[in-house]
Design the sequence.
């Protein structure tokens, strides 16, 4: 609790010794680039002391100061925004003094306030660590400009606990959203033009209902995968659960006509998965692996390459499949491709095999430059733990991704700045009002997506809507598209 | 007997009653089992309380979890239960004092208290129900003092009803409102005048939960309107509501209705006989509410009746089997294997839970093969195969089971699944800390220790393992961690077939005899004699003489296939025993019941299991045996 609050105090301590190192703070908000609209980066000083003095300042505006006995620094939201708004493009400095008998001053923490804002909301799923059992889970939206978190839906609000997953938005817009509901009252729920509708996308030609989805930028089509998903447990210290497909295909759902189409090129006997449209809608990127041999031990057949196929949305026709980056070349399996909003980059994960990276401690993020064809490990944002499930902001200057670096157990959302030159900067974890949140919390943040505003439908509207019977989707071929794994059904 | 002496008598009786309750729980019931049966999670941080604030009834649920943490200390738990009962007694007697009208016998005041006492003897009884009813009585207690003050009772109702709804949930609102209406009705001279108040209260009772369901909270309809207790804990499904639960639950309106009816009746009689109720005035001045004949003739009879009532209710509510299951489970976690075996043996009837705990106890006392069929194995290979026993309530069992055997990844898998069902449960978190210490994931262990450090009961555990995190060299001197490291399989996919999991353990550490025994037993329980036989050469590494059960298996194998060459010695005694068994069986082949009866002394043999007890013969599954008990 703050003992004194001294705004604008320029010389808080006259006699102090200097410690030539950065102070230990949690979370690590040092040397990071932050959006100009982010919520206050509250933190806890991890240096022992009886009193703490903190000054947060920049070139312009009022310094935010604290003098208190608690090491927990909670910055007032209004003052924070006033300060960072006035200093876009400049450094944000934090002076920390700790009274350890005498006052000790540490090196100045210098962060940078980017001129580019981040989308104002983060939508994520909260789920238990294991993710194979869902007694309690929910999809939430967190305002990134403050600390408000609201449920979009929690499965504890219905008598029969459902599972819901793979929420997806069109062009980071909160007005177009899709989400799957499984087990009870199942279907794909689509929020579009202020209306909720539920579809049953399982047809006799598909392995499963819609799974991993990507909205076409036009907002009327959704590419999705159908998967026959298998789960194995392992004794690998780096990967306790092995989730893999022994078959998968891609399909396209037409929202307006409630119809499904595919092509023999994306529904082969091999495994096509994790679709992602290019921002112009002319290419569908996805990952592809050879046909499964049903042999979990043979990981070499389990590596995915990054491929793409041309698409003409006007005539609904497909071009040829083009391998963008081969697993043979990388020696690793590519997963979760996400094309940047300017269409130049693909951010993806690589793991030893398979595509389900969230349980893989070795999962790292890589960046492919589509202009040069070069790809590289995004070292500055990776860690020794799992780094996965990434998404771009609408302006392409920020990425959010999941990392387990904090404790090797729970996944947390991290944000990183991506500058004009195509470089990432040191990431920072989603700020919380209470810096003690992460150590106390035992739930996973899963599938974070940045959206430009609040998802407007209320949580109870979704709950009440859920019992509506799903509209049966119609498979419209073409008939020769029913090939590969799908045709086996 | 004057009023002062009656008062002193009451005080003495209540004190003796409280002392008896305290000693009964301390020495006989032991609240630590109550805590263990329900595993209520608790953390002191704000994030833990937040979800409880997000639904009606959450606060009292949170409070019940907090209170139950103290049940881990037996004397404190006993004291708390005694205090809860005395509070209830105080509130009920207070209500009738507040009404300032006679009618209620002392014995009836004691009725909810003795009912609650009886309910507390079941380890699964949800404490939150007791708290909710106490809150309802407390609200009515307040109300009674305002019934004679104009419209103050209405003000109080509309203030306290929403608070009660938010604190204790929809059912408490309904009970309170029903009690309020009863008190109101009996005070109205004309029933026609009751229509508007009744309509108002009923409308409020519907509007409040409706508003809550539609606007205020994100909850199910049952949680918004009416539920006896939250059912989000998987363990609470073990509680079976009986007639005494309902009697206690609805005691609020029932008691008031009874009291007001008695008052009305007496008042009419009094009017009819034109007698003045002089005796009533005496009672008022004393603050006592019992009718005079008891006071004058024999208050001792009342005390005796109350004592007898309490004893009867304790007796009929006590669930020996459920309590034995909880105790056996508890002793398993404490590694008190002999105590587990004593409990199992003390139960005459078969129980699937005791079956699991028995198997674990004989395994940990190195009697796995010798004593396996001393307890009927009706669940067959489900006892050794978690994929068959894949039910929420068994997740922790499987985690313990594989931890015993050294299959740490499997132990972790089941513990993590259990954690989703029981978030922040100290028992699961402690298991996960140990697992992560074995796996060398100190980061993860540290995180879990931080969480454990925030509860009220894991201090000693946290201290021990935090020291190891701070100085990881200490891990190497921890025998348990090092033994598990030597046993656990590494860098392989866990096979779907559980036999191969045991095989992985044996391959990892040839000294893991227990894993070998579980593998072989799994095969025998599945009637897979051929694969059992294929694994038999390894037995030479563990035994000088083949275990009797294996010898029995070889005899069965031989009876099935005469041509198989068995290069193992089978003792003459085993052969003779089999011959005797077989001769009885053959002679009674057509009468299975008779055969079973005659072969009772062979019940601890593999032959008997294969012919009579095995689920392959009986067709039984876990679901058949225990109904929905294991389903989540």
Sequence:
């Amino acid at each position: 609790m703050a003992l004194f609050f001294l705004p604008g105090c320029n010389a808080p301590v006259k006699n102090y010794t200097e410690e030539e190192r950065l102070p230990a703070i949690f979370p690590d908000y040092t040397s990071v680039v932050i959006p100009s609209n982010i919520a206050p980066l509250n933190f806890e000083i991890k240096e022992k002391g009886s009193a703490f003095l903190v000054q947060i300042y920049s070139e312009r505006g009022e310094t935010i100061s604290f003098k208190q006995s608690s090491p927990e620094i909670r910055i007032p939201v209004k003052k924070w925004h006033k300060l960072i708004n006035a200093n876009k493009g400049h450094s944000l400095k934090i002076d920390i003094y700790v009274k350890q008998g005498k006052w000790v001053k540490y090196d100045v923490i210098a962060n940078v306030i980017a001129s580019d804002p981040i989308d104002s909301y983060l939508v994520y799923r909260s789920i238990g660590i294991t993710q194979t059992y869902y007694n309690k889970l929910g999809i939430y939206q967190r305002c990134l400009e403050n600390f408000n978190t609201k449920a979009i839906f929690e499965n504890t609000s219905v008598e029969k606990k459902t599972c819901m997953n793979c929420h997806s938005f069109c062009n980071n817009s909160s007005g177009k959203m899709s989400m799957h509901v499984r087990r009870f009252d199942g279907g794909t729920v689509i929020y579009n033009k202020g209306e909720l509708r539920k579809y049953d996308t399982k047809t006799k030609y598909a392995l499963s209902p819609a799974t991993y989805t990507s909205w076409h930028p036009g907002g009327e089509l959704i590419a999705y995968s159908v998967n026959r998903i298998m789960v194995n447990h392992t004794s690998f210290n780096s990967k306790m659960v092995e989730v893999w497909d022994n078959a998968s295909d891609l399909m396209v759902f037409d929202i307006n006509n409630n119809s499904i189409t595919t092509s023999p090129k994306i529904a082969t006997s091999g495994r096509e998965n994790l679709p992602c449209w290019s921002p112009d809608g002319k290419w569908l990127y996805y990952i592809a692996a050879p046909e499964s041999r049903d042999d979990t031990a043979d990981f070499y057949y389990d590596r995915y390459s990054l491929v793409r196929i041309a698409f003409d949305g006007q005539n609904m026709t497909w071009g040829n499949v083009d391998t963008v980056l081969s697993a043979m070349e990388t020696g690793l399996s590519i997963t979760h491709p996400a094309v940047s909003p300017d269409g130049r980059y693909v951010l993806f994960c690589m793991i030893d095999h398979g595509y389900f990276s969230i349980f893989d401690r070795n999962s790292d993020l890589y960046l492919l430059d589509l202009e040069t064809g070069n790809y590289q490990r995004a070292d500055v944002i990776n860690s020794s733990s799992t780094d996965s499930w990434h998404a771009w902001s609408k302006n392409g200057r920020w990425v959010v991704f999941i990392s387990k670096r904090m404790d090797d157990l729970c996944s947390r959302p991290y944000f990183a700045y991506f500058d004009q030159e195509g470089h990432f900067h040191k990431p920072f974890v989603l700020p919380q009002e209470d810096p003690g949140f992460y150590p106390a919390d035992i739930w996973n943040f899963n599938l974070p997506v940045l959206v430009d505003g609040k998802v407007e439908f209320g949580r109870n509207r979704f709950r009440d809507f859920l019992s509506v019977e799903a509209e049966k989707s119609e498979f419209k071929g073409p008939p020769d598209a029913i090939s590969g794994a799908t045709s086996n059904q | 007997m004057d009023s002062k002496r009656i008062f002193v008598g009451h005080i003495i009786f209540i004190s003796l009653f409280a002392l008896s309750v305290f000693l009964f729980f301390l020495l006989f019931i032991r609240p630590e089992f109550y805590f263990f049966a329900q595993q209520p999670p608790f953390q002191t941080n704000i994030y833990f309380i937040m979800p409880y604030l997000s639904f009606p009834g959450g606060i009292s649920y949170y409070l019940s979890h907090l209170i139950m943490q103290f049940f881990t200390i037996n004397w404190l738990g006993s004291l708390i239960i005694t205090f809860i009962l005395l509070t209830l007694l105080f509130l009920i007697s207070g209500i009738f004092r507040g009404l300032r009208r006679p009618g209620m016998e002392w014995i009836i005041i004691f009725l909810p208290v003795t009912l609650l006492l009886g309910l507390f003897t079941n380890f699964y009884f949800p404490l939150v129900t007791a708290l909710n009813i106490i809150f309802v009585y407390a609200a009515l207690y307040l109300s009674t003092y305002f019934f004679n003050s104009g419209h103050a009772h209405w003000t109080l109702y509309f203030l306290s009803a929403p608070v009660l709804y938010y604190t204790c949930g929809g059912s408490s609102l309904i009970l309170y409102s029903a009690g309020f209406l009863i008190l109101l009705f009996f005070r109205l001279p004309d029933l026609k005048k009751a229509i508007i108040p009744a309509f108002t209260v009923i409308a409020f009772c519907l509007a409040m939960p409706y508003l809550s369901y539609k606007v205020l909270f994100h909850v199910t309809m049952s949680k918004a309107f009416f539920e006896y207790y939250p059912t989000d804990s998987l363990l609470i499904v073990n509680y079976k509501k009986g007639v005494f639960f309902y009697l206690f639950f609805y005691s609020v309106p029932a008691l008031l209705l009874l009291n007001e009816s008695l008052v009305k009746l007496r008042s009419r009689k009094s009017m009819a006989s034109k007698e003045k109720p002089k005796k009533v005035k005496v009672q008022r001045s004393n603050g006592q509410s019992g009718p005079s004949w008891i006071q004058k003739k024999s208050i001792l009879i009342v005390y005796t009746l109350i004592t007898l009532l309490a004893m009867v209710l304790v007796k009929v509510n006590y669930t020996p089997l459920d309590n034995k299951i909880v105790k056996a489970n508890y002793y398993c976690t404490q590694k008190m294997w002999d105590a587990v075996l004593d409990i199992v043996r003390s139960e005459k009837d078969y129980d699937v839970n005791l079956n699991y705990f028995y198997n674990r106890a004989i395994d940990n006392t190195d009697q796995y093969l010798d004593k396996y069929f001393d307890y009927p194995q009706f669940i067959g290979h489900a006892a050794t195969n978690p994929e068959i026993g894949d039910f929420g309530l068994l997740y922790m069992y499987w985690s313990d089971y594989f931890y015993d055997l050294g299959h740490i990844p499997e132990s972790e898998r089941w513990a993590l699944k259990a954690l989703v069902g029981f978030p922040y449960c100290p028992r699961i978190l402690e298991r996960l800390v140990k697992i992560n210490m074995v796996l060398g994931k100190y980061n993860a262990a540290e995180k879990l220790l931080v969480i454990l450090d925030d509860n009220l009961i894991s201090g000693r555990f946290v201290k021990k393992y935090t020291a190891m995190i701070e100085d990881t060299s200490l891990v190497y001197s921890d025998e348990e961690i090092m033994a598990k490291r030597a046993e656990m399989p590494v860098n392989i996919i866990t096979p779907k077939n559980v036999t191969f999991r045991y095989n992985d353990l044996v391959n990892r550490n040839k000294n893991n005899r227990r894993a070998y025994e579980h593998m072989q037993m799994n095969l025998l329980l599945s009637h897979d004699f051929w694969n059992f036989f294929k694994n038999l050469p390894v037995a030479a590494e563990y035994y000088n003489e083949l275990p009797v059960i294996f010898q029995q298996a070889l005899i069965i194998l031989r009876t099935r296939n005469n041509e198989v060459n068995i290069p193992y010695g089978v003792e003459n005694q085993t052969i003779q025993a089999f011959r005797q068994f077989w001769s009885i069986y053959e002679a009674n082949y057509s009468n299975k019941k008779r055969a079973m009866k005659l072969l009772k002394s062979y019940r601890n043999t593999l032959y008997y299991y294969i012919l009579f007890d095995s689920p392959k013969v009986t067709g039984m599954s876990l679901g058949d045996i225990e109904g929905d008990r294991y389903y989540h």
User: Anything to note?
Assistant: The CA atoms of residues 211 and 217 of chain B lie 9 Å apart. Chain B touches chain A through 49 residues (CB under 8 Å). Confidence is low (pLDDT under 50) at residues 277-291, 626-632 of chain B.
